[in-house]
Amino acid sequence: MAQPSVILATASYDHTIRFWEAKSGRCYRTIQYPDSQVNRLEITPDKRYLAAAGNPHIRLFDINSSSPQPVMSYDSHTNNVMAVGFQCDGKWMYSGSEDGTVKIWDLRVPGCQREYESRGAVNTVVLHPNQTELISGDQNGNIRVWDLTANSCSCELVPEVDTAVRSLTVMWDGSLVVAANNHGTCYVWRLLKGNQTMTNFEPLHKLQAHNGYILKCLLSPEFCEPHRYLATASSDHSVKIWNVDGFTLEKTLIGHQRWVWDCVFSVDGAYLITASSDTTAKLWSMTSGEEIKTYQGHHKATVCCALHDGAEPSPP
User: Fold this and answer.
1) Distance separating alpha carbons of residues 125 and 97, to the nearest angstrom
2) WD repeats span which residues (predicted)?
3) What is the pLDDT of residues 229-249, one digit of tens each?
4) Which of 91, 77, 47 is nearest to 65 (CA)?
5) pTM for this prediction
6) Upper half-sphere CA count for residue 53 (Cβ side, 13 Å)
7) Are 99 and 118 in contact (CB under 8 A)?
8) How far apart are CA 74 and CA 110, in angstroms?
9) Tally of CB atoms within 10 A around 105
């Protein structure tokens, strides 16, 4: 089967993962995921695999195959896996779980290679563009930087005591990090390189973005430059687009009927995909703020989405 150049996938509380034709809105493949709900989806940089983070395992599916079976299962977490992502060459995967740990998995060998203890249910993990630091946020309000070279925690922050950090995002050039919490607040820091390799956080802005929870925050990708945006998806049914230059509100995306759980930018930042409890995912134009396409097919809340519409990284 010819591989679509745009990989778009969603997962729902209906225990399915669906692949969509982005332009037509047609669902062309459904994978049953009976064992648990799926909390997070991520596509490998080479577009070959889709990682589904469930409870308590992570499963890897072959995007180019029609097999309903995962090609690999990663099994050492003991609770919901809330975060999953890949190193830029796809050599290893990272994950964060409500079991309080952040783990690193070498995709070429079974089992978990490293484990870091956060002492709080981990909601979100992002990889710094330098590929040597992971930043995690947990239910107790802690943000921690894990230095993969030194194999230790190099930095701890608590932006708001006892307020869960729901989502973290780092600017593609490593210049900013944003943390979104359960009070609808985004904390923004400049990331400064210290004397050693350690990253220092310099407070830049506090943004009261929503009255409800922020379930996902996301900074725009490199090819969106010179425009820099922050998207915030909320329990108030809206997604807001903020201009990072001054953190002024650019647009509010209105159309979902329930909580908006996840969002992802297209590679050039021209479009945004969102996933909502109203069972749908939507495609939005960033220029007009209008809804272009609705992806309908799930029977319950659609809680995560993944998109890869860029070129595969060329082999070194």
Assistant:
1) 9
2) 1-30, 74-108, 115-156, 207-252, 253-294
3) 999 999 999 999 999 999 999
4) 47
5) 0.95
6) 29
7) no
8) 8
9) 23
